[in-house]
Amino acid sequence: MPQSLKPKSIKLLYYKEKKDDKRIFRQVVTLIEYEGQPSKIIQWSQLIEGDPFGEHEITYRINYGSESVLRSFKVKYLGREGDKHRVLIKEGVSGCGTKTKKIENKEVLIPDKLYQPYPLQQKSEEGKDPNPIECEICQVLVPILCNLLATKVASAIACDEVCEVDVCIIFIEDPIIYAICSVSCDIICNEVLQIILRIGIQTACTVGGEYVCEKRWILLLILFKKNKGKDNKYLDDCYGEQDEKA
User: Fold this and answer.
1) In sequence order, what are the residues at sequence separation of 6 or more whose Cβ sits closer than 8 angstroms to the Cβ of residue 243?
2) φ/ψ bin of 123: left (φ > 0), alpha (ψ from -120 to 50), beta (otherwise)
């Protein structure tokens, strides 16, 4: 899929899951709508075998258009650390689109809200937009892009570099977000990159993913123009204003 596409919405069309003592199997269909381009239907399944809070294997089969990809992981749950779960990916194959990357003995900290090995009641309503999928992916992409741009990687190839990183691996326990990330991370990356460049790399990377991805950058851009050449206190003011409204 070309990087010029811009996602407009992501809708969950179908969701079904079966669970027994040793396996969890999910089937999902989503619709990604793009601005000025035909929509794309993505069908996939996720199979978890074993104990999600012990040794387990995760397998994704993802179909979109004429493409079909397989992603699989052998995972060991290491324990909870505050509001995150630490897992060891003993071996696996991840990637972005049809590009693949082998993984061995990689530890990952997964936020509690993304650790979804059991039935997803909140995501099982068909026809609903399973937000904030794009926002979650965006918040992972922002610091990676900032690091690349800070090391003088050209913006024209930044998203190609991102696809070489295990950018989607943090989502492997969430059956919906991982599949969307796996097939669309390059498209979403391009959109996030354009936002960062529009705001300004230093400003965007200072305020971080939460502000960039929730489109609060519009307010930041207005404040930046009003305070151009002045002290950077406007960033603190922006945080304060947003926090008070929340």
Assistant:
1) none
2) alpha
The CA distance from 168 to 83, in Å, is 19
Task: Indicate the pairing of strand 23-34 with strand 7-19.
Answer: antiparallel
Give the pLDDT confidence of 46-93 residue by residue, as tens digits. Answer: 999 999 899 999 999 999 878 888 889 999 999 999 999 999 999 998
CA angle 190, 7, 123 (to 5 degrees): 120
Residue 184: how many CA atoms within 13 Å on its side-chain side? 33
Residues 99-130 have pLDDT tens digits of 778 889 999 999 888 887 765 544 444 444 44
Distance separating alpha carbons of residues 117 and 55, to the nearest angstrom: 13
Cα(187)–Cα(181) distance, rounded to whole angstroms? 9
Q: Which of 8, 45, 3 lies closest to 26, judged by CA? A: 45
Which of 10, 17, 26 has its CA nearest to residue 183? 10
- pLDDT recorded at residue 77: 95
Q: What is the 3-state secondary structure (H, E, C) of the chain?
A: CCCCCCEEEEEEEEEEEEECCCEEEEEEEEEEEECCEEEEEEEEEEEEEECCCCEEEEEEEEEECCEEEEEEEEEEEEEEECCEEEEEEEEEEEEECCEEEEEEEEEEEEEHHHCCCCCCHHHCCCCCCCCCHHHHHHHHHHHHHHHHHHCCCCHHHHHHHHCCCCCCHHHCCCCCHHHHHHHHHHHHHHHHHHHHHHHCHHHHHHHCHHHHHCCCHHHHHHHHHHCCCCCCHHHHHHHHHHHHHC
